[in-house]
Fold this sequence. Notes:
Blueprint: E1 8-18, E2 21-32, H1 35-45, E3 47-52, E4 58-62, E5 66-71, E6 77-85, E7 88-93, E8 98-100, H2 115-124, E9 129-138, E10 146-151, H3 154-166, E11 174-186, E12 192-202, E13 219-221, E14 229-231, E15 239-243
Amino acid sequence: MRGHCSEEAGAFLTEKRSGGRMVPLSAWHVRCKESASADAVVRAYGGVRLGSDASGWIECRLEAQAVGVLFSSSEQISALLVAKEGMRRTHVCDGAVFQAPPSEVGAPCGCAADPFERRKAARAGTGPQPDIRLRFHLVDLPQMGMFTLQSASWSLFDSLRGVLVGEAQSADGLELDLLLAQRTVVTRSGLVVGLVMPEARSRRRGARQSDGPRPKRRTALWEGGLPGGCEIPARRSSVIHVQAGLGYGTGRQNQGRGPRLPWRHSRR
C-alpha cells in the first residue's frame, strides 16, 4: 500500500504471562520496537510507557478503548478455529468449512453453528479454539509500520467473522475498530460480573475513530493479578471487571435483584 511502511513496528496485547499463566489485561497494551513509535502511540491514544524488556521493546498501556486499524489485503487477517495434539494441528476451520489440509478445504467442518455450543465443546476438549492473527496499520498513524495482534478470544473471533461476512469476505482496504467492549452478566449466585472482551467493529457502519480516554470511575486495577478493575458501585452488589470471560475474586451477592442467568466463569 502506497505511503505505508511494511516493517513491523509493534504488537497489541490483550493478555500477558504472569506467574506461569496468561493473565487478561484491563486495557490495550502495545509493545513497540522503537522509542519514537512508543511515544507516537501514547500521544495518539493516551496512556503511559510501562518500561522496556531485555531486548529493548517498549511496552505501553493505552487509555483509548477503541483503536482504528487498516488492512491492505485478506492475507493480513487470519481468524480460524484450531484444535491441536501437541504441536500438530488436527482441525483447522473458519467455523463452517475446513481451511486445511488442502485436500479438505471447503468441506463442512462439523462445528456447531451456535456460538455457545462451540465454546462448550472447546471447554470440554472436544472442539477447536480460536486462533486469531492480525497484521495491520493504525488509522491514526498510517506512516508507521505494521502492528500485529494474536488472540484466542471467542468474542473477537465471532465479531471478526461477522464483519468479514458483512464485507463479502474482502479485506482489501478494510478499516475496523478493535475495541475492548464492556458487558455485564449476573451469575446464578447473584454476583454481578463485568466482562471486558476484545471485539472488532466495522468503521464503515458509523464506528468512531477512537473512543478516547475512559471516563473516571471508582475502579482499582490489579494487572498481573486480578484481571481488570474491581468497581464497587453505590449499590451493595460488587462488579468485578474481567477480560475474555475469566472470572476471579469475590464480591457480595446481588441479594436476589435482577435476573439469575445460567452463566459460568469461562473463556469468552
